[in-house]
């Protein structure tokens, strides 16, 4: 599931306020809540990110047991260690990959190739965005953040962040979103592969930096031709 962190595309744009890029958004308040998410199937994947809700769901068996056997309600409610143990098992053994098993998620050469692909494609995307916007200075970051949870569909949050005195998250146009969607991932390098690499290396925010002053004349001409077309 891929979400775009862009002011006009989220309900809680205040969470996108940054002081210096690249900046993570998962875990900040309610996180990024895209417009229309509640009406989509991906809503429940987003809900899983809220730790408190996961804890409450994990403890449902205790609530059910107290409802079925009321006379055991008091002893069950006074067994916090058992509750903590169940939460730990779900968080560490079900929703996470044990540290000793992470190195087996992806071959080292495949991980290096994936990271190189990300950097090359990210730089190309930022170059084209800077060219279309006729930016001649400033530093852009393509930030790709993924959830730390394993064994559930990966959640990926993509944003373009601008560094400087007025650091901010770029409000992406439909054309820029389409560019990122078509150019960043494909059958050879996809969201799931990046997630395995991130789990193996315990790194969940990756970014590519680009200096807008280095946009080539060719890229600017291409952007001009595309705009005219």
Domain count, please report it: 2
Look at the structure and give the mean pLDDT. Answer: 85
Q: What proportion of the residues form beta strands (DSSP E)?
A: 5-15%
Major sheet: size, sense and barrel closure?
Answer: 5 strands, mixed
State the total count of DSSP E strands.
5
Report helical residue fraction.
40-55%
Rg of Cα set:
21 Å
Can you write the helix and strand succession as a string?
A: EHHHHHHHEEEHHEH
Tally of contiguous helical segments: 10
User: What would the principal axes of the Cα set say about the shape?
Assistant: elongated
Looking at this protein, list some descriptive labels:
single chain, 229 residues, alpha+beta, 10 helices, 45% helix
Q: What would you say this structure looks like, in words?
A:
The chain has 229 residues and is α+β, with helices and mostly antiparallel strands. The chain folds into 2 domains: 151 residues, no CATH class; 58 residues, no CATH class. The protein has 10 helices and 5 strands; from the N terminus they run βαααααααβββααβα. Strands 1, 2, 3, 4 and 5 form a 5-stranded mixed beta sheet that branches. Helix 7 runs antiparallel to helix 8.
Structure summary:
It is built from 10 helices and 5 strands. It is an alpha+beta fold.
Which helices and strands occur, and which strands form pairs?
Blueprint: E1 2-4, H1 43-47, H2 51-58, H3 60-68, H4 73-77, H5 80-94, H6 99-102, H7 108-132, E2 139-146, E3 156-162, E4 168-169, H8 174-183, H9 191-201, E5 205-211, H10 217-228
Helix pairs in contact: 7-8, 7-10
């Amino acid at each position: 599931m891929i979400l775009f962190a862009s002011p006009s595309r989220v309900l809680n744009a205040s969470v996108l306020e940054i002081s210096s890029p690249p900046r993570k958004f998962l875990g900040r308040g309610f996180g990024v809540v895209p417009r229309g998410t509640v009406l989509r199937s991906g809503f429940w994947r987003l809900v899983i990110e809220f730790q408190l809700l996961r804890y409450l769901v994990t403890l449902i068996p205790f609530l059910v047991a107290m409802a079925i056997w009321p006379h055991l309600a008091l002893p069950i409610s006074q067994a916090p260690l058992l509750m903590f143990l169940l939460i730990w098992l779900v968080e560490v053994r079900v929703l996470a990959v044990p540290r000793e098993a992470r190195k087996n998620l992806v071959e080292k050469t495949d991980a290096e190739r994936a990271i190189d692909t990300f950097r090359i494609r990210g730089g190309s995307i930022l170059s084209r965005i800077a060219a279309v916007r006729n930016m001649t200075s400033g530093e852009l970051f393509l930030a790709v953040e993924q959830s730390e949870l394993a064994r559930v569909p990966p959640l990926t949050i993509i944003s373009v962040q601008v560094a400087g005195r007025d650091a901010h998250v770029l409000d992406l146009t439909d054309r820029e979103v389409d560019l990122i969607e078509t150019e960043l991932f494909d059958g050879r390098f996809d969201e799931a592969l990046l997630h395995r690499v991130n789990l193996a290396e315990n790194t969940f925010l990756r970014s590519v930096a680009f200096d807008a002053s280095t946009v080539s004349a060719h890229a600017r001409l291409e952007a001009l031709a595309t705009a005219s077309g």
